[in-house]
Amino acid sequence: MNAIDRARRLLSSDGATLSVVNGKRERIYYDRGVKSLTDVLDSNRALLGGAAVADKLVGKAAAMLMISGGVDEVYGEVMSDGAVETFEKFGTKYSFGTRIQGITNRDGTAPCPMEQTVKYIDDPAVAEEAIKRTQKILKLRAQGGKMKKLGFGMMRLPLLSSDQKDIDFEQVNKMVDEFLLHGFEYFDTAWMYHEHTSEIVARECLVKRYPRECFKLATKLPVFSLTCAEDMQKIFDEQCKKCGVEYFDYYLLHNLNKGDYPAVQEYDAFAFARKLKAEGKIRHYGFSFHDTPQLLDRILTEHPDAEFVQLQINYLDWESEGVQSKNCWEVARKHNKPVIVMEPVKGGTLAKVPADAEGLFRAVRPDMSVPSWAIRFAAGLDGVFMVLSGMSNLEQLEDNMSFMERFRPLNAEERLTVNKVSGVIKGTGAIACTACRYCTENCPKNIPIPDYFSLYNLHLIEGKNGWSSQFNYYEALTVDHGKASDCVKCGACEGHCPQHLKIRDLLEKVSGVFES
Fold first, then answer.
1. Residue 206: CB partners within 8 Å, gap ≥ 6?
2. Which pLDDT score, from 0 to 100, does residue 469 have?
3. How far apart are the first and last CA of the chain?
4. 8 Å CB contact between 72 and 55
5. Closest residue by Cα to residue 312 from 502, 500, 504, 507
6. Is 190 exposed, middle or buried (0-12, 13-18, 19+ CB in 10 A)?
7. Burial call 296-307: b when 16+ CB within 10 Å, e when fewer
8. Rg value, the chain, Cα
9. What is the pLDDT of residue 513?
10. How far apart are CA 422 and CA 349, in angstroms?
C-alpha cells in the first residue's frame, strides 16, 4: 500500500480530521479546521517534509500550510477550487473525493476566516505566518469581554514623504498586526483622511489581510460634501468599495456643526443611517461633532436614535471656551449616549510638552510617557467606550498599547498634575491645532497649515535650541508648498476648522518666525 492510500485509510478512523504518513511515521489528528496543521508545523515540522497527507476538508489555507511544510502528496475528501489552484501552481500532487467552489465558516453564513486570511496571499511562508496570527486573534476574540478602549485612528498614518497620499504601507501592516495581536480591534477611517486615501489603506492593510471577525471598522459620511440626498448612497457605496467591505461596524455623520447641520436635516441623513442599519450594511450609527454644547443638545434631542457621539476631548480643551470639551461631554451624558473620544493628544500637541510641564509628569510617574497622560485622562471619563489615537509610527502604537492593554484611569494625584500641566501649556501661547488637515482641502496656495503650526509650536517649546532643525523643516516644506506669507486671506480654511482658529492671523505669526 502506497503512502497516500495509507493516509486515506488512517483518515477513516472515528473522528479523524487529518492523517500524515512519512515513511514509518504515522500520525492521526482530530482538531477541526487548520489547527492540526499549524500545531504540526510548530511542534514537529519535519514530519510534513515529503509526507503524504489526507484531510477531511482542504481549502486554500490548508493547501498553503501543507506546501509550506513540504508535503509531497495530498488527498482531500472535500477540496476547494482554491486548494486545487494552489496545488497546481506549486506542483504538489493531489486528489480528492468531492470538489467545491469555496469553504464557509461553521455557521455557513460567510467565508471561512482562514480562507479570507489567505485570499490575497500567494507565498506559502507568508500565508503560514498570516494564518497563525489570525488564529491568535480569533482566540482572543473568543475569550469575550468588552472592547479595549484604544482605537486605531487612520488619519495620521506613517508617510514616506510629505505627500499625504504617500503612505508607508509596510509600516502600517506591522502596526495593524501588533494592534490586533494585543487584543485591540477598533479602526477608524473617513472619506477625506489622507486626501481621500485612508479608506483604501484600511482595505489593503486590514480588510484584505484579516477575516472580518478580527476587527471593527468605522468610517464617516462627509455631510459637508453633500449636494443632494442621492449623494449619500453614492458615497456609501463608494466607501464600501474603497474599504473592501459589505458592512461597517460603526458609521458616523462626519463633523456636525452649525454650518453643516442644515444639510443633515434637508437630506434626512439620520433616516439614511437608519435605512443602512435596517439593511444590515452598518451595525451602529452616530455622529462626530465640533461645535457648541447647545447645538449638541439640540441634535441629540431631535435625533434620540443616534447610538453614540464622537467628541473632541483632551485635558487642554477640557475648560476651553472654543472647544468646550467638558460641556459637550456633559450633554452627551445627559442624553445617556456612549462617547468616542477623538483628539485625546490634540493632534500631537500633548505628545511633546514644555520641559517644565514634562517635569511635572515625571515627578509623579517617571515610567509613563507624556502622551499616556492625555489618553488616560480621556479614557477614564464616564461613558467613554473608545479613545482614538492617530498613530504615525510603530513606536507610538507600542507606547499606547503598553498602558491601554490593561487600562487604569488617572487617580486623584494624577488628575491634579494634569491640571497643572494644562496651565503651563496654555501659558506658552501654542497654537491649538489638531492637524486634522480639513483646512488644506481648498487652500488656493497649497499651504500646509498644520505642518507650519506644528513647527511654530515646536519653536515655542524648544526655542533657539532647535532653531536650525525647525528652519530646515520649514524650508523643505516650502519647496512643494506655499509659504505662510503666501496666504491670500480668502478664509476658506477657517470655515473648515473644528478648532475655530483664526488661521489667517496665525499664519502671519508663522511667517514672522520663519521668514523674517
1. 176, 187, 215, 217
2. 66
3. 88
4. no
5. 500
6. buried
7. bbebbeebeebe
8. 27
9. 84
10. 11
The label of the residue with cell 478602549 reads 149
Compute the distance between CA of residue 341 and CA of residue 501 in angstroms, rounded to an integer: 20
Pairing of strands 18-22, 52-58: antiparallel
Torsion angle of the four alpha carbons 389, 392, 393, 399, in this order, in degrees rounded to the nearest 10: -30
Contact indicator for 388, 340 with CB cutoff of 8 Å: yes
Alpha helices in 192-258 (DSSP H): 193-196, 198-202, 230-243
How sure is the predictor about 21, in pLDDT bands with cuts at 50, 70 and 90?
Answer: very high
pTM of the predicted model, to two decimals?
0.86
The closest alpha carbon to 217, from 281, 311, 312, 139, belongs to: 281
Output the pLDDT for position 109: 81
pLDDT given at position 268: 97
Q: Is 333 helix (H, G, I), strand (E, B) or coil?
A: helix
Query: Whole-angstrom Cα distance, residue 40 to residue 48?
Result: 8
- With cell 488661521, the residue in question is 503
Q: 34 with 124: CB under 8 angstroms?
A: no
> Where do we find the cell 479570507?
116
| pLDDT given for residue 97 in this prediction | 97
Which residue in the block uniquely carries the three cell numbers 489555507? Answer: 61
Edge to edge, the sheet with strand 73-80 lists 25-29, 18-22, 52-58, 73-80, 93-100
Under a CB-based contact definition with an 8 Å cutoff, are residues 74 and 93 in contact? Answer: yes
> Does the structure show a pLDDT above 70 at 180?
yes
CA dihedral 324, 327, 329, 332 (to 10 degrees): -130
C-alpha distances in Å from residue 373, one per residue of 118, 150, 317, 412, 419: 39, 14, 14, 13, 11
- Find the mean pLDDT for residues 247-261: 95
The set of residues, in sequence order, having a beta carbon less than 8 Å from that of 2 and lying 6+ positions away, is 52
Distance, in Å, from the CA atom of 148 to the CA atom of 395, rounded to the nearest integer, reads 19
Compute the distance between CA of residue 225 and CA of residue 222 in angstroms, rounded to an integer: 6
Amino acid at 389: S
